[in-house]
Amino acid sequence: MCNKTFYFTSNELENIVSEFNDCTLAKSNWNHAAHLIVALWYLTNYSELEAINNIRDRIKKYNVAVGTKNTKNSGYHETITLFWVKMIQKYLAKNSANNSFAENANNLVNFYENSALPFEYYSREFLMSESARKNWVEPDLKPL
Question: Distance of alpha carbon 139 from its chain centroid, rounded?
């Protein structure tokens, strides 16, 4: 699953989360790893519902701040976001005992480095539909 190794220091991780929350993270740095790190931070600091609501709201706010429109064709995507939340939760349930945030973040980013993983569960057409962008939809290829 891992082809390369990512390693972020505690300070780098804090900066990613802080800059994302402040909407000052460079758009070029809002990559797959940063998405995972931010979602992990919310999931480890809030209840599941609060984390999901914060992730959703903050991504939308961040997108606007960096000039990305949240429309039926671009920007925030509910199903992809919740897919990764579910993957992170699954990972945490098996691997997070006694690990620091930095250990969990680095392990998670390396474990789930493949940003195309949702396409193992969803057909491209179904996942890229307006319905899937707006609302959570269950996978059409295989169950989570």
Answer: 17
